[in-house]
Structure prediction request, 697 residues.
Amino acid sequence: MATFIKVAARSARWLPRITPRSTAPAGGNKSVFSTSAPRRQLMATAGFTESQLMVRDAVMKICSNFPNTYWQQHDQTEEYPKEFHAALAQDGWLGIALPEALGGAGLGISEATMMMQTIAESGAGMAGAQSIHANVYATQPLAKFGTQEQLEQTIPNITAGKLRVCFGVTEPNAGLDTLRLETFAKKQGDGSYSVSGQKIWITCAQVADKMMLLARTTAREDVKKPSEGLSLFCINLNREDHRLKVSKIKKMGGRAVDANEVFFENYPISGDSLIGKEGQGFKIILHGMNAERCLLAGEALGLGYAALGKAAEYARERVVFQRPIGQNQGIAHPLADVYMRLEAAKHATYHAARLYDASKTDGSIRQEEVGVACNSAKYLAAEAAFAACERAVLTHGGMGYAVEYDVERYFRECLVPRIAPVSREMILNYISEKVLELPRSY
Amino acid sequence: MSALRILVPVKRVIDYAVKPRVNKAQTGVETAGVKHSMNPFDELSVEESVRIREGKKTPVEDICVISAGPTKAQDILRTAMAMGADRAIHVETKEGEDLEPLGVAKLLKAAAEQNKSNLVILGKQSIDDDAGQTGQMLAGLLGWAQATQASKVEFNGDVVQVTREVDGGVETLKAKLPMVITTDLRLNEPRYASLPNIMKAKKKPLEKKTLADFGITAEKRLKTIKVTEPPPRQGGGKVEDVDGLVSKLKELGAL
Prediction:
C-alpha cells in the first residue's frame, strides 16, 4: 500500500501533461493541447513526403475530436455526421486537391489519399470517409471542365461546406457496364433538359444539394461509339420536387452515410448545368476514375490499420489461461501476416497515387499504366483490409461481435472497398486483358 | 503607443502522448524514431500572440517565432507560421549541442534585441526537461517586467494586465511594455492550422542562424550523471470491506 501512495504522488507531478486532453467532446471545443489523442500508429511512415506527413498529422488532430463512440452512435442512428463534415470543411480540407486559383490547396491525389486513409484509420472508418468522399472527388471534373460561372457558383461553397455534392453514375440496369446507362436528359426547346431514369447506390443523396449526374443525351443507337452520347451535369437536387424521388437503401455497414435509389421523372434541369460539351460526359468521368480508385484504396488501408491496431491491443491485454492471448502464435501470426499485407498494399497505393499525379505533367506516363497501378492498388488494399477486419473480429472472440469493440463495425464496412467502385472480378479482367494480353471474356 | 513586436520562442519536444523511455546508455531519454511536436505550452504562446492581433485592440506589427534545435525543429516553426506567426528564425544546433535554460535565455535576450521585440510570450515550461526557468531568467537578463503562468492577458495601451492562477485563487498583475509573459494551460485553446494556412506557411520567411550569430556557445554548467526509469508500479491488493481496509492500513503503518 505504501508503494501505491508513492506512485500516486509521482504521477501527480505529471498531471499537467495528462489532464488537459481527455475531456474533448465530439465535434465540440478543442482540448487545451491541440495535439492528437494517444494512439500508437502501426503503419511505417518512412518514405512519405513532407506534405503527406503534414496532411496525416493535421487530419489526425481533427479526427481526434471524433472518438469511436461518435461513430458507433451515428452508425446506430443512421445519422449523417454533419459535425465531422463541418470540421473538415472549416479548416479547408475539402479543397485539398483543387487548384489554388479556385481556393484549394493545390495538392495532389497522393495527399488526398493520405487524408482519406487518415480519416478511416482514426476510427471513422468508411462512414467517415464516405461522408466527405464525393465532396473531395466530385469537384475534380468540375474544376477541370466547368465554366467560370459554374466554378464560381459551386466550388467555393462546396469547399466551405455550405453545399454538399453526390455523384450520380451507377444504375440498376447498367451496373459496371457504364456505357449502358439509360437515364436520359432530353433537351427542351428553351435549352434546358428534362431527366428521366433511375440511379442506384447514390451516397449522400439525402443530404446533398447538388448531384454530378451522368446521363445519355443521345440514344446509344444514334452514336458511332457507345462511349459517345453521354453528358455530365452538375444539377440541383430538389427533394421537394415530386418529379424527383430519393429513397434510402437499408444496408450492411457505413450506416451513418445514406445510400439511395434516385428516380427522375421528367425532372427539369437548366441548360447551364451541363459540364463540358454535350456527349463528352464519359471522357470527363473517366478522368476521375483512377483518382477515385486511389482514394478508396487509401480508405481501405485506413480501415485495415484501424482494425489491426484494435486486434493487437486486445491480444496484448486479454488474458486467458493466465497469459495474454497474443502470446499464442495462433493469434499472433495471422495478425503479423496481415500487417505485411497492409504494408504491401500501402506501397501499391501510394505508388499508384504518385504515378497519377506525375502523369499530369509527365507525358511519358501512359494512361493505361496509371489505370493498372490504380486498379491494382484498390484490389490489394481492399483484400488486405478485409483480412485485417476479419482477423480483428476473430482475435476479439465473442467481444468482436459486440458494438463496443468497434471491430464488428469495421468488418461490416470493409466489404465496401471490395465491391466499389469496381468489383474484384472486373479488376482481374482488366489486368488479364491489359497487362497479360489475354482475350477478353465478356 | 508603439505597435507590438512579439517574439515567441517554441521548442520541439517528444509528443505529449508518447511514453518516454530512457536510452540504453542511461544518458537521457530515447528520442530516435519518436514522434515529436511543438511543446504544448508553446502552442498556447503562439495562439495568444495571434489572438492579440485578431483582437485588434492593440496593433501587432510582427509575430516572430524562434526555435533552437536540430533541422527538424523547422517543422514546428512551420506549424507556428500556419497558426498565424509571420516569420521564423531557426537557430540550428548540432547533435549533442544542448542548451540549458540559462543558455536559452541568453540566446533569447540577443534575439529580442536584434528583432526589436517589445513582448516575449513563452511557455511556462517545456514538457521534456520541465525546468520552468527560461522565462524568468530572460526577464532578469533583459531587465523587463515579467508575468508568469498567465491565464489571461489584457491590453490597455502600453499597460498589460495579466491574470495568473496561484494557490487558492487568482492574482492580477499590471506591467508596462516591454515585458515577458509565460503561458499556462487555461490561457486559451490553440487552434488547428487550416489547410490553406498550412500552404501559406510554406512561403513565409524562415531565417537560418547559428548560436554564434547571437554570440552564444553551448557551454554546460550541469552534468547529467545518470538517467533511470522509475521503478515499475507494484500491483495493488484488494480488501473485502472497510474493516479490511482499516486493518490493512494499520498493518502497513499508514494509520
Summary: Residues 4-224 of chain B form a domain with the Rossmann fold fold (CATH 3.40.50.620). The mean pLDDT of chain B is 94. The first strand of chain B starts at residue 4 and ends at 9. Chain B has one domain: 4-224.
